[in-house]
């Protein structure tokens, strides 16, 4: 029988309610029949429900890392509570009678395997074509490739036009001052921000909206933090505009529409496909990732929630990020991510272009419990000298195109209270003030709530480094503490 943990079931569930309802169905004996295939790749149950007929729900484990759930109920949730209930039956080691895999499931498997093979570029057996048919197919493929390239070139040209508008706006603001955005002029900038969407510039559009939000807030409360944030946004918008203009001009001059290993594509508003990332070599096989922190934030400029996961590669120690974007207008269609307490065994992971803590994505993973060796691996990857790391961190944070944070594993001698607040002392005696980055959930005060003072001595900290404008210094926000036998998460 497939080995499951409740953590895995919670990952599969579309939300907490589905998980809770599924568990109740299992506990109350909602299934009248349970079956599984001889090879343990297919599980099926007949479950009572509110309809006239019982619901048939199944879990297909032909790909153990990405099981497929099906159910005859009318629910729009996926997987539904009946599918989750079936998993709880498996977790409880209920008795499943052996059955043959249904014919319709076998056909669905064959179709899925064909789709996956096509997506991976694998050749499929085809009937022998006549010479005429081959020529027609070649012409059709060439025509489609040409049309696709022309469409991409036109998009680049349109983006270049939009960058002209953006540059003019920036130059006007730099000449007249950010204060001129207020009052009656604000509607003009709002209209411009909206217009950038027509030029396929969703990234600059989001920055414009953020600039408007910060200036509007500054006009209301006079808080310099909003004005400083507006300057940061304007600086990034200017840098993005200059670099993007050069990038697009080079592409057009060379008649090149292919995707490149550059962060500019996404910053302009492009959305990478996994197959595209793999095509440019941004892929790593058989990765073991431990999630060390998780949080949910809301971006007013983009009108969306973001579920952020912070993961450490057990082999390399590299810290990567997962982002699940949930626009306000699509909340009911996009599942909210949740914390993962364990190690994700990922067959193939795709990394986004960029520097620092790269974004990472994958399809299908198996979650296993932590082992003692995992904690040892995490601790072994921790940096021991903040002094040696500080210059590189500061240079990264100074880059207008970079994220405002850099997350690292840091070995520390102790964490204690000083006059300014909590301070971390590394293994060389160098100190750094701990604090909470603006916009992040507060975690530093939670150090006082730790159940054992030994957690603040001789351990490893998952630290979020950021530059604090108020005191003009580099600080670190504590996210998790890694000991020899556990991960203590302060942001989960």
What key attributes describe this structure?
single chain, 492 residues, alpha+beta, six-stranded antiparallel β-sheet
Walk me through what this model shows.
By secondary structure, the chain is α+β, with helices and mostly antiparallel strands. It has helices at 6-12, 16-27, 81-91, 103-119, 131-176, 186-195, 202-221, 224-253, 264-267, 274-279, 372-380, 386-398, and strands at residues 31-37, 42-47, 55-60, 68-71, 97-99, 283-299, 304-313, 319-327, 343-351, 360-362, 366-368, 406-417, 422-426, 431-433, 460-468, 473-482, 487-489. Helix 2 packs across helix 3 and helix 7 packs antiparallel against helix 8 (224-253).
Q: Please tell me the overall pLDDT.
A: 90
- Poorly predicted segments: none
Q: What's the number of helices?
A: 12
Rg from Cα = 26 Å
The H-and-E topology, N to C, reads as HHEEEEHEHHHHHHHEEEEEEHHEEEEEE
- As a percent range, the share of helical residues equals 25-40%
* Main sheet summary: 6 strands, antiparallel
By oligomeric state, this entry counts as: single chain
Content-based structural category: alpha+beta
Tally of extended strands?
A: 17
Measure the end-to-end span.
31 Å
Overall shape: globular
Task: Quote the beta fraction.
Answer: 15-25%
Topology of helices and strands:
Elements: H1 6-12, H2 16-27, E1 31-37, E2 42-47, E3 55-60, E4 68-71, H3 81-91, E5 97-99, H4 103-119, H5 131-176, H6 186-195, H7 202-221, H8 224-253, H9 264-267, H10 274-279, E6 283-299, E7 304-313, E8 319-327, E9 343-351, E10 360-362, E11 366-368, H11 372-380, H12 386-398, E12 406-417, E13 422-426, E14 431-433, E15 460-468, E16 473-482, E17 487-489
Parallel strand pairs: 1-5
Antiparallel strand pairs: 1-2, 2-3, 3-4, 6-7, 6-9, 7-8, 9-10, 9-11, 12-13, 12-15, 13-14, 15-16, 16-17
Helix pairs in contact: 2-3, 5-8, 6-7, 7-8
